[in-house]
User: Fold this.
Amino acid sequence: MLKLLLTGSPDEVHPFIHNLQSFPGYRVTLSPPETLESDVIRVRASVRSVPVDRSPVAVRLHTADSREIDIHFLDGMVIRMDDRTLYISGKVFDIFG
Assistant:
């Protein structure tokens, strides 16, 4: 596990934390931000490396006319960003395209 001490303006610290949390291979735990000055905060972060499952992923889309479209990703990755948002990525090859 890595421990980070982030100090800077909230406009720099918060986007950095958000980007760090978006990497699927890291599990980030944060302490509440401390205000040092009017424009400087400090956040302690613990970062743990976690294995990423990069197996095939299938996504099924439903069209307005009730058809189904299946998209199969190779080396797929699914990341839950929040309660309503999933980030899905992978490689798609169309040998007939």
